[in-house]
Amino acid sequence: MPAEDCLSSRHAHALFDILTSHVTLTEIESLKLSKTVASFGPPLEPSIKDRPSSPLLRVLLQSFILDLPGLRSVTPHFWTDSIRQLATALDDANLSESYDKGSVGIRRTLSTATASIVESVARGRLGGYPKQATKEHTSYDQTNPEHLIQAWDDFLQRIIYGDLLDKMFIKAAETDKLADHESLVQAAHQYALIM
Known about the structure:
Elements: H1 9-30, H2 34-38, H3 55-65, H4 76-92, E1 99-100, E2 103-104, H5 106-127, H6 145-161, H7 164-174, H8 183-194
């Protein structure tokens, strides 16, 4: 294939983001239809083995949710009856699609918030997060935008490839004060608040 027919790495990344966003929004939007839930596949509909109605959401459910403590041991009845009934009840409630009394409706608000979270998780699950060397900072200036960006990148690297998550759980068991956590955690928290 000629070089001019290939996407650059930057363009491929942008295309991946666009397609992930489109698929995520489409699948979440389709959840308002009871037929989507009925053909979701396991665990909601165990008889559907091929061609689930929401393949991305199903992959995320199987990758992250089904292995959580407390959900790992629930009976199939919980998924096939309780969760399907909840989804059907939401469909039957006919929640507002867009606007209620001059403001954004409940369904649109929930859909948008859910889509942004699911989209981020989907990008990470499908595209991964490239491993990079982290810069060893002893402290991050929370008033400096470059430090916050660097802290966020270092935070993700150390959460995914290091032991920061374990350290955060240990520290959270000792204290409920963010100020007691290391500078990296505080700066990453500040970045998340701003973004």
